[in-house]
Amino acid sequence: MGRIEDLADRYQRHIAAPWQRNLAGGQKAVFLVYDKTDERKLLARKRLFEIATREAGHKWTTFDLTNTFPAWMTADDYREAYFESPDDLRMKLDTEFVPFAAGQLRAALTAPEVDGDTVVGVFGAACLYGFTRVSSVLKEVERDIRGRLALFFPGDVDNNNYRLLDARDGWNYLAIPITLHHGELES
Questions:
Q1: 172 φ, ψ to 5°?
Q2: Count of alpha carbons within 13 Å of 149, Cβ hemisphere only?
Q3: pLDDT tens profile 41-59
Q4: Angle CA(92)–CA(93)–CA(94) in degrees, nearest 5?
Q5: To the nearest whole percent, how much of the chain has pLDDT over 90?
Q6: Could you give the angle at the alpha carbon of 116 between the alpha carbons of 96 and 142, nearest 5°?
Q7: What are the extents of the domains in the chain?
Q8: 3-state secondary structure of 161
Q9: Which uninterrupted H or E stretch holds 76?
Q10: Could you tell me which of 1, 69, 59, 62 has the C-alpha nearest to residue 32?
């Protein structure tokens, strides 16, 4: 069995356990942490996680962050000026992009078909790199998590300190990590 299949198996064992219902939003998040080099393999096998969720008796839906930045930038009237002077974009990323990305994710988390028994699988977190931190977006939507949020996270975790793409200092988050280390399952 490959690493992605092992991760899906570990996820299935976690998601099939009885859900505690009175948790804070951040505690309803599950981070599936995997090596950044496995991103394409994971995307090709993401159906394994849907199957695992449904077999555990829960509903499944997905949200992909991949096109969040292009969608935001396309809608900006001054986009051409930012391409000419990218440093001018930094402040706008913090004040406008984070709420935009959070709003996109919030719409998926609060869709009419999503309830307290639904897992929302979130893909494309790596596409936020360089624009904002995943933690900034998640902080905005914690209260909107109804069932579970399963964030597919290409990076590393050590004592709940997450590092996206192993590239920058991480942040501490309440999520439950599901990970593989050195070929062995750990959580």
A1: -90, 135
A2: 30
A3: 999 999 999 999 999 999 9
A4: 90
A5: 51
A6: 30
A7: 3-15+23-186
A8: strand
A9: none
A10: 62
